Amino acid sequence: MTTEKFNIFKFTGKMKILHLSWMAFFISFLVWFNFAPLLQAVKETLGLTTDQVKTLLILNVALTIPARVIIGMLTDKYGPRLVYSALLAVCSIPCFMFAFADSFVQAAIARFLLGFIGAGFVIGIRMVSEWFPHNELGTAEGIYGGWGNFGSAAAAFTLPTIAVLFGGEDGWRYAIGLTGVISLVFAFVYYANVTNTPKGSTYFKPKNLGAMEVTSRGDFFLLLLMKLPMYAAIALLAWKLSPSGVDILSQTIVNSIYVGLFALYLLEVYKVWQVNKEIFSKEVPELHRYNFKQVAVLDILYFTNFGSELAVVSMLPLFFAETFNLDPVLAGLVAGAYAFMNLMSRPAGGWISDKFGRKPTLMILTAGLAAGYALMGLVDGTWPLWLAVVIAMGCSFFVQSGEGAVFAVVPLIKRRMTGQIAGMTGAYGNVGAVTFLTILSFVDYSTFFYVIAATALVGLFTLIFMDEPRGQIAEVAEDGTVHMIDVS
Questions:
Q1: What separation in angstroms does the CA of 118 have from each of 83, 312, 438?
Q2: Dihedral Cα 117, 432, 313, 53, nearest 10 deg
Q3: What's the confidence (pLDDT) of residue 51?
Q4: Other Cβ atoms closer than 10 A to 479
């Protein structure tokens, strides 16, 4: 770790790494969310039906769940510098594919592949954790997450204007193509300007890339249990595309996806066994243990906070338009206040976590999130609009601060597995989004908000089982020397 002072206005040392990393994350979200603001133009040019547009939106997030897990593993093995640069460069290809698409099938394949860029977030979590000490880690990860996340809002604000500036019915193609160019160029900028660790520090790698390590028998079974919702969410997406949902895929194809997911889960069980079978014959020394329940609690919390954010951001403009009879533009602007909070809320959550403890911060923010969504459930057309907006922004503060507080804990569990832990936690955010949006398709708005509030209460209960990170964690270098890393 470097000992220089935390100064957000500096662009040297660890601050340079932080700024370049949030920019990489910002660009990944700019590319990932470049479709929604130009949806109408794409629909007209390609002659798409409303169901086909909905399918593209589903496909855009489908691959992100497994991608976050895979990218987490690759980051731990090969380092964030190489993996982030490669992700930005490689994902510019499906971005260009989408810009040049002239049929639904081409657009669908491109959007599906672009789901991979949504995994970029995980990489920077490991990079930032290598450069910042434990007492600044929450703040740094919060800035990385909050400012990077703003890439989705930047896409909404700028891309329609850029498309108009290029002009013509192909203006949207140039706007989307431009985001691909930015991604490709920044891949080289990032690679040339960062290193995985400060000079003289060791980059700890996992013993095995095949699956996450656990250090007790109970944790082995808990890991297998916690893997199930990720497969269930992808199955749910397949069901939404089936004849029972938007009727895009035939029942035969959907059934094949179900069988494939079951086979993949069995393969994952085998991989987890291969990596961890030794714990059934001999105990892991106390020094090298970690509690997987810490990861499980963070997964459930991120399912609620980031999952609800992704779901609510997509439905809030419609909620305001229908509840208060607003025109779509005004409803979009009002709903935009929810996403805009990310710039300050996520860093605030990390900072509070640094100052007042990881577990108390998570308990307070999760309780606030439950209360916020319970209030959102009460909002109807008789309320003053300004009060509904204030409640939405207040709710958004607890949601996004909670996200910052979750990722203030992730790097403090086991350093060499930070990418894998961040990948699994991040994937749970997408599982939450799929779950909440599916629930929304069956219930009214107020029930939807109440369901999220109830889920937050479940998260609050699981926090009882989480331990405050204390003392040091041990990591073993490749030469066999043991390094102790401060976590409090």
A1: 13, 18, 20
A2: 60
A3: 78
A4: 6
